[in-house]
Automatic annotation (TrEMBL):
Protein name per Swiss-Prot or TrEMBL: Muramoyltetrapeptide carboxypeptidase
A GO biological process held by the record: proteolysis
Keyword Transmembrane: no
Organism listed in the record: Taylorella equigenitalis 14/56
Keyword Iron: no
InterPro entries linked to this entry: Carboxypeptidase_A_C_sf, Class_I_gatase-like, LdcA_N, Peptidase_S66_N, Peptidase_S66C, S66_fam
Length: 357
């Protein structure tokens, strides 16, 4: 896949970063609110992975999404159960077909992650998806679809909240919600976050990545996108640092990591160190990566299975720069999704401050 054109001008990028730094320095912890929109975008909910443990939560998610200004339709098989999956492989693969043929909703979201998408990749009608581009948004197991879509069709998508996992609760994370809504409407231009232990970087490239285990599982298949000189971002959950390192070694030995312009780490969460680790930790993994791959490494991205989950494009040209303990991710608005999302609203700045764990 060739790189996108219309690279943001350097002076525009510098101005955006300066503006973001000023806003960040002046910002207080003021709760964010989702503003009302006259135009309501449609969302079609599917369950291509594991079944919903609490299917009643799908109604909560629907209500919450409607309160954000979306129209929501739920796939007829969204609450199915078959073994550990939300229906048979055929049913789940056909959910993408139904989303296109039975709805005009420009946004398609999974209800949850879990496991199951890699099983159905050969069954998905990629030609239909290529001819009817939509906006797809989900994370975790949905990484397999995000990357396969890019590899098979060249179409971008988004990684961000899953409908029920994130919006099926009575208590929502405000920042996750705000960024999701504005990204779906084409309004988010720059994300700034604390990144005190990052390498110096000022690069442009196609943003891609997601869950490390899922990404690595696609290596060597027709569903792995061949991105050169990209910005690769990674997250994972319940994976011990040595297992994270083993996955990174596989990507390194396959030549994937050294061909990137930068590697960005989101949350590596929910693991326990043992006595026999003897000081080995994620810090050890990052230091090994820096010495071995010789590619700039950025940490602190608020993305993954943590409390805050920002929405990010996959397959879109971005700029990334670090400065004074901050990292700035700038989205090229000229190369947004080919789907029907509303991009006429004014672009806005977002800032995010997190405590490094």
């Amino acid at each position: 896949m060739s790189e996108f054109q219309n690279k943001p001008c350097d002076h525009e990028l510098e101005q955006l970063i300066n503006d973001a730094q000023i806003l960040f320095d002046e910002a207080d912890d003021v709760p964010l609110q989702v503003r009302e929109y006259e135009k309501k975008l449609g969302i079609y909910l599917i369950s291509p992975s594991s079944f919903l443990v609490e299917p009643e939560r799908i109604q909560v998610a629907k209500t919450n999404l409607q309160s954000f200004g979306f129209k929501v339709k739920v796939d007829k098989y969204a609450t199915e159960k078959y073994l550990r999956f939300a229906g048979s492989d055929i049913q789940r693969a056909k959910s993408f077909t139904r989303a296109i043929k039975e709805s005009k909703a420009p946004i398609i979201m999974p209800t949850r992650g879990g496991y199951g998408i890699t099983r159905i990749l050969p069954l998905i009608d990629w030609k239909l998806l290529a001819e009817n581009p939509r906006t797809y948004c989900g994370y975790s197991d949905f990484t397999a679809f995000n990357l396969a879509l890019l590899a098979k069709t060249g179409l971008p998508s988004f990684t961000g909240p899953n409908a029920v996992s994130d919006f099926g609760s009575d208590k929502l994370d405000e920042l996750t919600t705000e960024i999701f809504v504005e990204m779906m409407r084409g309004e988010l231009e720059i994300l700034s976050f604390v990144s005190e232990e990052s390498d110096s970087v000022d690069e442009h490239g196609v943003l891609w990545g997601g869950n490390l285990a899922l990404l690595t599982a696609l290596l060597g298949t027709p569903y792995f996108p061949k991105i050169k000189k990209g910005i690769l971002f990674l997250e994972d959950v319940s994976e011990h640092p040595y297992r994270v390192e083993r996955l990174l070694i596989q990507l390194h030995q396959a030549g994937v990591l050294k061909s990137q312009k930068a590697i960005v780490f989101g949350d590596i969460s929910d693991y326990k160190l043992a006595d026999n680790d003897n000081g080995f930790s994620m810090y050890s993994v990052i230091e090994w990566l820096r010495k071995t791959v010789k590619v700039p490494v950025v940490t602190g991205l608020p993305y993954g299975h943590g409390e805050v989950r920002v929405t990010l494009p996959i397959g879109i040209k971005v700029g990334i720069a670090t400065e004074n303990g901050m990292a700035h991710l700038v989205i090229d608005k000229h190369n947004h999704s080919k789907s029907e999302i509303d991009s006429e609203n004014c672009l806005k700045l977002h800032k995010y401050k997190r405590k490094n764990k």
